[in-house]
Amino acid sequence: MTAPLVAGNWKMNTTVQEGIALATAIRDAVGKPGGVEVAILPPFTHLWPVHDVLEGSGILLGAQDVFWETSGAYTGEISPTMLAGWCDLALVGHSERRHLLGETDAQVGRKFLCAVSSGLRVIVAVGETESERDSGTTFAVVDRQLDAALAPFESPPAAESFVIAYEPVWAIGTGRTASPEQAQEVCRHIKEHLAAGFAITGVRVLYGGSVTADNAAVLFAEADIDGALVGGASLNSDKFAAIVGAAATSSPPAR
């Protein structure tokens, strides 16, 4: 059994001082739960002071994005080599970057490769829009995103170097959550696709999309949901700690 991962994506929220206070509250509320990995992903401006807050706590620190080159004339971008040694993780492919900022599947793949090559563990987000779900193309969309994410690799990356986060776009920040059955179906499909297409097994698949303390336990009880990428609830230390607690005590048939 692989320990579930609960990662909190703060998005573009909190000032630096508010972020330090929130990280401190999360560290104190979460403690050191057994059997679950915990990570928080604050804005870039917060990474260094939050790193100091989390030092020795066992809570991982992640960046919300990363660029696909290690250096160069890319004004405003952050390379993975700038983050290595400070961060444990980097998130790539979040739907808000894909749909609001026009990030392509190919760019997500380049970011994934560069981050892994720089020693960061990577959370790769995939997921369908409401119209794609309604048209019955969810699996095709997720497969396309997975294939593009892995296309730049000459050989498949190690399973422990990355995590997939299934985030249906229609459930992010809307209060609408995929049912446990819907989430389980896609998370299982992702694992099957990675195994069949790339001979990669053992990758954790998280669910993200309006995850709360109230629905976390039923989601984590599904066999192929290995944790959560949490948005709004990660801005409240008690709510986030409750989700971590649900992951720590869940007992799915297999993980």
Order of strands in the sheet with the most strands?
A: 7-6-5-4-3-2-1-8
Q: Let me know the average pLDDT.
A: 95
Number of strands: 8
Helix content: 25-40%
Distance between the termini: 5 Å
The tally of domains stands at 1
Please identify, by name, the CATH architecture.
Answer: Alpha-Beta Barrel
Return the CATH class. Alpha Beta
Computed CA radius of gyration, to the nearest angstrom: 17 Å
Low-pLDDT stretches: 251-255
Number of helices: 10
Please give the largest β-sheet: 8 strands, parallel
Output the CATH homologous superfamily: Aldolase class I
Explain what this protein looks like in three dimensions.
With 255 residues, the chain is α/β, with parallel strands linked by helices. The protein is 40% helix and 14% strand. The chain is built from 10 helices and 8 strands. The protein has an 8-stranded parallel sheet with strand order 7-6-5-4-3-2-1-8. The chain has one domain (5-249): TIM Barrel. Residues 251-255 have low confidence and may be disordered.
Summary of the model, kept short:
The chain is built from 10 helices and 8 strands.
Record keyword descriptors for this entry.
single chain; 255 residues; alpha/beta; TIM Barrel; eight-stranded parallel beta sheet; 10 helices; 8 strands; 40% helix; 14% strand
